[in-house]
Amino acid sequence: MSGSVRARRPASPPLGLPRPAAPQRFPHARQDHLDADERRVAASRGFKPGRSSHSPGGLNLAPAEWKLLLLVVLVASGVRLFRLSRPNSVVFDEVHFGKFASKYIKTQYFVDVHPPLAKLLITLAAFIFGYDGNFDFKDIGKVYDHVPYVAMRMVPATLGVATVPLAYLTLRALDCRATTALLASLFVTFENGMVTQSRHILLDSPLIFFTALTVFVWVGFCNEDKFEPFTEMWWIWLILSGLSLGAVVSCKWVGLFTIATIGVSTIWQLWVLLGDLRTPPRTWMKHFLARALCLIVLPILFYMAMFEIHFLILNGSGDGDGFMSSEFQHTLGGRGMADTFADVAIGSEVSIRHVNTQGGYLHSHPHNYPGGSKQQQITLYPHRDTNNLWRILNATADGGHESDWQSQPLQLLKPQMRIKLRHIETDKALHSHDVRPPVSDVDFQNEVSAYGMAGFIGDANDDWYLEIAKGDKRDKESGKRLRTLRTHFRLRHALTGCYLFSHKVKLPEWGWEQQEVTCNKNAVMANSLWFVETSTHPLFPADGPKVNYRLPGFLAKFTELQQVMWTTNAGLTDRHTYDSRPDSWPRLRRGINFWVKDHRQIYLIGNPLVWYLSSAAIFAYVVVRGILILRAKRGYRDFDNTKVVKYDSLCGFLFVGWCLHYLPFYIMGRQLFLHHYFPALYFAILLSCCGFDLVTSTLRPRVRLQIAAVLIIIAIWNFQYFSPLAYGNPWTKKKCYNAKWLKTWDFSCNDFLDDYAQYAGIVPPTPQRSEPPVATVGGEPGGRPPVLVNDQIPPVEKEHTTVAFGKAEPGVDIFAGDAVKDIKSEHAAPSPPAEEKEISSAFSKPSSTETSVDTEKKKGEEPANAASSSTSEPIAAAGKEADFSIQTHPATEAKDEEGHAHKNPQGPLDEPAAEANRAAKELYPEAQHKV
Amino acid sequence: MSLSSNSPGRDTRNRKRPLAGSSNTGHFDTEDDHVSSIYNRPRNRSAVEKLLDTEKASYAVVGALTALAFALRFYKINHPDQVVFDEVHFGKFASYYILREYYFDVHPPFAKLLFGLAGWFVGFDGHFSFENIGDSYTEAHIPYVGMRALPAILGSLTIPIVYSIMKESGFSTVIAAFSAILILLDNAHVAQSRLILLDATLIFFMSLTIYSYIRFRKLRYWEFTAEWWFWLVATGAFMAFTWGSKVNGILTVFTIGIAVLVDLWDILDIRKGYTMDHFWRHFAARAVGLIVVPICLYLTFFYVHFAVLTHSGTGDSFMSPAFQETLIGNEMLLNSQELRYYDTVTIKHKDTKVFLHSHPEKYPLKYDDGRISSQGQQVTGYGHNDTNNEWQIIPTKALPETGRGRIVRHEDVLQLLHVNTQTFLLTHDVASPLMPTNQEFTTVNMNDHSRHNDTLFHLNIIDANEGDPWKSKSGHFRLVHVPTKVSLWTHSGTLPEWAFKQQEVNGNKNPTEKTATWFVDEIISDETGIDIQNRTEHVAVKEPKKLNFFSKFGELQLLMLQHNAGLTASHPYASNPINWPFLLTGISFWTESEPQKQIYLIGNIIGWWSCVVALSIYVGIIGADLLARRRGVAPIPDPVRNRLWNNTGFFVLVWAVHYIPFFLMNRQLFIHHYLPSHLASTLVAGSVLNFVLSETINYPISIRGPTTRARPAMFSDLGLKGPVMVAAFTLVMFIMYVYMAALTYGTPGLDGESVNSKRLLSSWTLHFAAKKTETI
């Protein structure tokens, strides 16, 4: 019984009476928004009234305006490309996006939370300019070496420049005056934040560009639509809108907000059209379908095409493998598996994988549990290894010796068979008994161990019943007997009735943080399922039926990756020193420290005038619109005024765009940064210029131009005032302190020198100084430098110990792992066998060539580096061996384990994927659930 | 409360309805014969409808339903004679009221006060701890049946209220009964209201709020009359009771708030012809009835709460020292002592409860991330008693030999001497081990005077005035470093192995950081090294202090909010809101393994799914109506449409406001949080059933004002099919109810097979399910 809209309607006439047509609530859209002169010109050219040319979507540009536009573009290029090559070291998130470009070029699979379009564009630039992918983009401030980073930065920079004319054209298409449009384009040009953001290898500049493009094209389409639908131009604008939408969302998922904006606008259009009783339903349907096709189907296709390219390029194995299912991993080069026998029989040598957790293979190694039964450990281990191999034996063979199977006829594995699993390397059996497991110390879990010795056949606690849970639909046999890869089965312990079980619980360091395996009496179905990945049997004929993973098609890969991205994105909740919450953005409370080096700093901060003006415009719109609504409620007829109607619809559109690009951030729990506000800022800037248009609409053109000029001059002055932070130029402490207009702007002034003159002495670091003597890995020109000690010059380090300001750090890349892991991945990267020698020579060199101060410092680091490289090399090698041939040398492995356990707590056969895998599972267990 | 105010014959003073004899009547469409006949000849209804619509029949129906409700809710209410689910909490709170011991809970006190009252009334002495689920009542001789009777009564009375809501909304008896039956025969509502839980109270008062608001709305043409005021204030009062029962009751306040705003927006409309003065009068009236009255009531609950709980109890430690000192027998009151210079003390962090600790080990030169430390002695937070936690307070000014001058006071500057290593606490401009943004804390030899300035700390006692002495236990303080203005702070991050995984202590840049609060836990000895027990002796038993009610109230509110948001720990039966309407998960309240008995909170699946279907039909109808109107077609008769939008719309609003916000909450959520929404959805279901069965409605139902224009009347007529369908549905519901009853009442015990058969959805996690055994 809430009060409602209904109550105030007059009583409706009784049924059957023709309803009077509803009175027109708003005046019809004006057909002729041109002034008399323009209309005359149009008529003289023979165009329809209200249409001055066939130019796109009612966009009326005077010829002189094109020249103006060209000038604006030149100014924008000057502002945004100025000294693009400075700084010549890694800035902020270039750490990630540069790295991704390297991985594209090396075709190593990686996972990121953002869709691929912008990264592909950057990679394209890098590729054209001959980047070989060997730079590691490890830390902020690392000097570029043989990286065409200027070309890579050109991509966002060019798109940033292109945003400027789009702002102009959009406002013109929205029927604003040229002065207003010029003001907007210059506001965008001199927005410090956008300038800073567009000058580096970051994804936001492409995002803003495509957002701006979408808005422009959509406005053009709306103009077309008002005149005459279904013309050729109408279709072109509509299709362009769809493609542009696809591009936005392929840069970053934030693009979904742009889709929402266009969606709201479309629904509003259709709703108005629906209320127009002159439109027959058929025409309405046509409108509806055309929009659905171009604005829903087309963007989806575009988006998927981007991923198709992504998958085509990334066909090699890389550190993103661990996030994907095993089927997916087998589509990647170097990750494939040879065909394996389809059947499993008594005597088969199998590796068994856990279904639900991606934890890997049922594994044992010659180390004992420190507690419990103190028998040999059973774990889940994610990598292929001979320690994963088990032989299936018949437990019911009476008094049977384990070699029975060789003499017996082949006996395929059927449900409810009583079997033993014998670990081949250590000759022990999979065993369980009534002892609590080491980590999950609860009543219903029993420890699982490997027990026995060569020649000892074992006891009844080694016996397991095979239960088949589920076969593959396409392989009918797999439901009836155990088939490799196709059958999911459970193992029930014969004496205690518990099920072999594993879950996402890690063993402590004594178990190399591998996953715990237990026997669970209340096992969750999903976590007690296993499958056989490889199976061999000496008695199988070599040409027997074989199977392999069914490789997922594009759609399966696409959906899997989307899920991984989604869960990861939602999980990015770690705090970052420079993160901020949405409520602080319109107030510009603080910026982001991008880069600090050599007493220069790059700090993302907006142009205060432009920023606060835009926020004020938003606020003013809300207030004015609120007052108008209240006035309308009390019977004032403001909305009969065409001027009010025009600016209402215009500002309303931009305001809705702002809201949809801003408010959704409030419900996002993830790490957020100031630069997430930029698309909304773009709308806000346009809105502020519309406000200018409205306020000055009654003034003479000259006065209007003068006001605009004053605003522009203030904006430019503001820009140059803060420009050292945007370009990383020299600045003085005093100026810096003066520029701290808000206490919360936390750029570090202590970092600048007192006087410009002092900067003369400081040569910006160049790669030439230290690079030449260092041999590169593999000895090829342009290869990767092996060690990066020359970066850490003492003064910088000293700075780090103080707390005067937060250190510049990149956004968290969940997929990257931490720094320690990076070092390992370097060494494990596939490279020629000569690697080891080259590295040792590289190590010896700097100590002889550098100055004595530096050597002293380095000596401390060298042994550590050398140690880590020497430890991980043989390990990686062993890992590779295990990958490619099943025969390995357990002795070496064991030795490795003993020797380097303290260095490699992850496991005897560590490799980067293990790290990635671990991180993935810890952070995003859901992503791993489906297999 | 009249149950059938709407039946013809009543209210005749207002509703001299002319038979819809306006000039339009002749033009009715012949297709809508039934509807037009109701318009034309309102008495021309089917016999069944006429029979059921009489006052007598209405009373009979509601009487029968209420009786059945009491029967179902009181059936075996003494079983189980054990503590069930959250009785652990709410039973305990009742006993605290009886013992008058202070406790802390996230929910407002009204419903718990009622339980305390009920317990007192039936002679419960409060000496039972309700420690674990499954503790026996009978062994401890607890009059638990009396306490359970309270929610059972309120739960039963909800049925006639639901009936009256529908009746007041102009639906026929059959429809009103239908909605009531959806609640009456719902296993979840029954299970929830038979136990000492707050939800029955919450739901009872929520439905009363809806009822009063509808009565108030119906009087809108008789504005500012006594009756109008009565229902307005009643709405506000019941709203306060709802809110006071459970913290979710605030959603009812939001519901009414939104409805009132829409209402006011309507009054503001120029076409209504009201002046602004008139609007402001309406505004003020609602402000009084729906803001002032509820707030006063809400404050009253807390006033009673504080008045009853005058003794120290389990809730003390949540509160500020000033608050704690108002409680009789509080430890702080007894043991809080003034600190003097050269006392040796242990200092504890308020939030994480660790001691300020130091040991001879040094910080390592270089951390993993490449930053460098001062290599000074480590200062950490340590959770256990240890002599390394002892610090001596060293003055920085001249002290008199004896007397009050030796007392440490607010705003003093002091040094802290680590007793075991004879070093001063210090902080300096070096980044802490874990946080590059915070300062490292370390210590320096007491003879090293070069660092004197860095060892000075400013004592900032919270909420203290100039010259107040520093007290142990009660004197919460911040320690702000004099040169750099950082405050001594710790957080739950642990340092690596080199510091034995103890907690990091560092300097927070914010000198007024809220979490940088510490207190002196214990005075180990005074300057002579003697244990200071003697100081306690001359402290007589202190009188509890007085504290302004409003500051007590404000403090408690804030804490309730914080703790409510903090309830994020996972619970095995917590569930996601999206599962609720579909009844995908329940809660295991209680189990007893011997006869395999269990109570499992789960609704009547037929009722719940009907409600979901009804909601979706409603959305469909509204959508279709919008589209049709947009195209100039009016498919639904106006009175019916009016009811669908305004009345059913209000029910949907109640449903949505009590449901949607849970999606935004990160706290532990349970299916019983959906019960208020479920009640709203049964109201929607009734309305939708009416729409599906017939295109008629009792109209108008608002009481005509002196100047209101007469409208063509319409009467609801479902014919015979209405009662038949509702009866059939009730039968099915009842069968399902009985089928699931063993899980609702916790008796009789079930064997594995029958547990399996009652597990209608695979997502229900019932106990004692038989394992699917496969033969070998």
Automatic annotation (TrEMBL), chain A:
**Gene3D superfamilies attached to this UniProt entry:** 2.80.10.50
Query: What's the EC number here?
Result: 2.4.1.109
Region Disordered, as annotated, extends over 1-37, 767-786, 826-931
Protein origin, superkingdom:
Eukaryota
Compositionally biased tracts (Pro residues): 11-21
Pfam families for the chain = MIR, PMT, PMT_4TMC
Q: Compositional bias (Polar residues) at which positions?
A: 841-852
Which intervals hold domain MIR?
Answer: 341-395, 410-469, 479-535
| Gene Ontology CC terms, in alphabetical order | dolichyl-phosphate-mannose-protein mannosyltransferase complex
Q: Where in the cell is it found?
A: Endoplasmic reticulum membrane
Membrane-crossing residues?
A: 109-131, 151-171, 201-221, 233-250, 288-307, 609-630, 650-668, 674-695, 707-727
Question: What keywords would UniProt list here?
Answer: Endoplasmic reticulum, Glycoprotein, Glycosyltransferase, Membrane, Repeat, Transferase, Transmembrane, Transmembrane helix
Q: Does the keyword Glycoprotein apply?
A: yes
- Comp. bias intervals (Basic and acidic residues): 892-901, 918-931
Membrane topology value: Multi-pass membrane protein
Q: Name the pathway it acts in.
A: Protein modification; protein glycosylation
Broad class of the protein's primary localization: endoplasmic reticulum
**Could you confirm whether the keyword Chaperone appears in this record?**
no
Recorded GO terms, molecular function? dolichyl-phosphate-mannose-protein mannosyltransferase activity
| Catalytic activity annotation | a di-trans,poly-cis-dolichyl beta-D-mannosyl phosphate + L-threonyl-[protein] = 3-O-(alpha-D-mannosyl)-L-threonyl-[protein] + a di-trans,poly-cis-dolichyl phosphate + H(+); a di-trans,poly-cis-dolichyl beta-D-mannosyl phosphate + L-seryl-[protein] = 3-O-(alpha-D-mannosyl)-L-seryl-[protein] + a di-trans,poly-cis-dolichyl phosphate + H(+)
Protein role: Transfers mannose from Dol-P-mannose to Ser or Thr residues on proteins.
Q: Which family does it belong to?
A: Belongs to the glycosyltransferase 39 family.
Q: What protein name applies here?
A: Dolichyl-phosphate-mannose--protein mannosyltransferase
TrEMBL record, chain B:
Could you tell me which InterPro entries the record lists for this protein?
A: ArnT-like_N, MIR_dom_sf, MIR_motif, PMT-like, PMT_4TMC
Q: Which Pfam families match?
A: MIR (PF02815), PMT (PF02366), PMT_4TMC (PF16192)
Q: Looking at the keywords, is Methyltransferase present?
A: no
UniProt keyword terms in alphabetical order: Endoplasmic reticulum, Glycoprotein, Glycosyltransferase, Membrane, Repeat, Transferase, Transmembrane, Transmembrane helix
A GO molecular function held by the record? dolichyl-phosphate-mannose-protein mannosyltransferase activity
Under Enzyme Commission nomenclature, its number is 2.4.1.109
Q: What's the protein's topology in the membrane?
A: Multi-pass membrane protein
What GO cellular component entries does it have? endoplasmic reticulum membrane
Q: Where is this region: Disordered?
A: 1-36
Recorded catalytic activity of this chain's protein: a di-trans,poly-cis-dolichyl beta-D-mannosyl phosphate + L-seryl-[protein] = 3-O-(alpha-D-mannosyl)-L-seryl-[protein] + a di-trans,poly-cis-dolichyl phosphate + H(+); a di-trans,poly-cis-dolichyl beta-D-mannosyl phosphate + L-threonyl-[protein] = 3-O-(alpha-D-mannosyl)-L-threonyl-[protein] + a di-trans,poly-cis-dolichyl phosphate + H(+)
Annotated MIR domain ranges read 336-396, 405-462, 467-523
Give the primary localization class: endoplasmic reticulum
| Pathway(s) per entry | Protein modification; protein glycosylation
Looking at its record, which EC class is this enzyme?
A: transferase
- What are the transmembrane regions? 110-130, 142-163, 170-189, 195-214, 226-244, 250-268, 288-309, 606-627, 648-665, 677-697, 718-740
Compartment list: Endoplasmic reticulum membrane
Role this protein plays: Transfers mannose from Dol-P-mannose to Ser or Thr residues on proteins.
Q: What family, per the record?
A: Belongs to the glycosyltransferase 39 family.
| Protein name in UniProt | Dolichyl-phosphate-mannose--protein mannosyltransferase
- Origin species, per record, is Piloderma croceum (strain F 1598)
